[in-house]
Amino acid sequence: MKISKILCLVSLVLIGNICSAQPVLTYSNNAYQVGELFSVLKCNYQNPGLNGANQLWNFSSVTPIDTQIWTTQATTISFASSSAALNIELFDSTNIRKYYYSFFNDSAYGHSDEILCVEGYVSTPLKYPFALGDLYYNVCGFSTYDAFGTLQLPQGTFNNVVRIKSISSSSVRGILGGGINNEFIGYTHDTTYFWYLPNTHFPIAKSINLWFPHKVSGIVVYYITKNFYYLNGVATSVSEITPEFKGNIYPNPTNGSLTINSRTELKKIEIVAITGQVLLSEVPTNVSHTLQLDNFANGIYFVNLYQNNCIVKREKVVLNK
Description:
Layout: H1 2-20, H2 27-30, E1 37-44, E2 52-58, E3 66-74, E4 86-92, E5 97-103, E6 107-110, H3 114-119, E7 123-127, E8 135-138, E9 141-153, E10 156-168, E11 171-173, E12 184-187, E13 189-196, E14 205-216, E15 219-232, E16 247-250, E17 257-262, E18 268-273, E19 278-282, E20 288-292, E21 299-307, E22 310-319
Parallel strand pairs: 2-9
Antiparallel strand pairs: 1-3, 1-15, 3-4, 4-5, 5-6, 6-7, 8-9, 9-10, 10-13, 11-12, 13-14, 14-15, 16-17, 17-20, 18-19, 18-21, 21-22
């Protein structure tokens, strides 16, 4: 009887430890990589919910009203040091805006867009490792890791999700705010919540509440932007993408035939559109498998490689027949 009680107590302790284990953002699981493409769905604003450990955020019923496509590429623009491990340009092809970041082993330097880059506003949105309760100030405001838990989106439920709260404010002058020359118009007020799934790089969800001053007929008014966004095409029930795949995918670009060579057995191979729709799913019978994409239109697709229930490789491929 005593042994049973002890085993029960040990089980409860272990369960408690599992529930309270927090994910941590690091350079290796958070920094953007060159050549990534993200399909993001825009929705009406959602309340970001509570902070703290083991939270549950339910956004499973949101309805998309627009789609945005974001891509990454290398850039020569760098911040704070010439020793950055990686300099990235994040391009919003829908709104035609560029965002710049320099990733270091211990931090990510960046700013909100190319306009602020010219004006010299540089912030430090993330420090690595970034754990619950960490808070970092920068020239425009601060970022804090204020919560982690489970995030529910229309495509499924995701565990071990990190939430970052960012508050920033910057001055608006001249024609940017409807004024003239270097005329001071007012201050922006931006409160944004980012939900990160380690190894996904782009936030899998974000809630934006932005107030932007603008001068109209001599009177300063505030334009308010409040929206919720979530990343399309994130694999359901996969807590993170593991870097264990050993093999290659070729040719890329391809004119219709795509071969996957893997050193270990794959359970499933998917071809996914940039909208997140799974267009083709096959179960390979050996470590070398060829997909035929002749019936697809020219464009950009993703290849998802699965072992068990985990995506071990996601790669962008270009079809050009």
